[in-house]
Amino acid sequence: MFMYEKKLQFPVKIKNPDPRAAQIIISQYGGPDGELGASLRYLSQRYTMPTGQLKGLLTDIAVEELGHMEMISAMVYQLTKNLTPEQIKASGFDKYFTDHTLGVYPVAASGLPWRAEYIASKGDPITDLHEDLAAEQKARTTYDNLLRLIDDPDIREPLKFLREREIVHYQRFGEGLQGVVDDMDCRNVYAFNPSYRPGK
C-alpha cells in the first residue's frame, strides 16, 4: 500500500551539533503532540470514516506524518552525531545518553516516553475529526515554541516547513468535518443521528 521515496520531504542539513536543541525537538517525534502519535492516530481512525474520501484524507495525512517523523529523526540524529562525552555532559544530554546512547527514541522533551494513549480513536467521524483538528493545532503550537527557542537557520527552516504542513492538515480536516456535517440528516452535530448514512 505504501511506497517509500528515499528522500526527506524537506532537506535536513544541520552543520553544527546541538544536543540541547535535540532534547526539545525530539518532542515532535515521541511527545504527546508529535508526529508518531499523529501518524498512528490517523491510520487508526481511517477505518471508521464513513466515506472513501475521508478514508483517503486520513490515509494521505497519516503517510505524510510518517515522513515528518522521519524528518524529526534526521534532525535529532544530525544534532547529536559524533558528540564527545564532554559535550554530552555539558549539554545535559547525559540522562538521555545513559538510556539510549545516540539512538533516536520516541520521548517527549520532558523525558516521558511515548505512550499509546496519544492515539485517540473513537470511531465517530465528528469526534475523531475534532480530535484531529485539535491535534494539528497542538503540533503547530509546539513548532511555534521550538522556533521561539532555536536560532540556527539549519534547524529553523525544516521546523518552519513542518509548521506550515500542520496548518494545511488543519484546513483539510476542517473541510472533511464540514463534509460530514453537510451530509447529516440533521444540521445539529450534537443531535443523535441514528439514521445517518453517508451520501444522502
Question: What would the keywords be for this entry?
Answer:
single chain, 200 residues, mainly alpha, Ferritin, 8 helices, 60% helix
Explain briefly what this protein structure is.
The chain is 60% helix and 0% strand.
What's the topology here?
Layout: H1 19-25, H2 27-30, H3 35-45, H4 52-80, H5 85-91, H6 94-100, H7 125-149, H8 153-182
Please tell me about this protein's structure.
It is a single chain. With 200 residues, the chain is mostly helical. The chain is 60% helix and 0% strand. 32% of the residues are buried.
Q: What is the number of independent domains? A: 1
Q: What is the annotated CATH architecture?
A: Up-down Bundle
Shape: elongated
Rg computed from alpha carbons, rounded to a whole number of angstroms: 19 Å
Please count the helical segments: 8
The CATH superfamily is: Ferritin, core subunit, four-helix bundle
Q: Which runs of at least 5 residues are low in confidence (pLDDT < 50)?
A: none
> What's the β-strand tally?
0
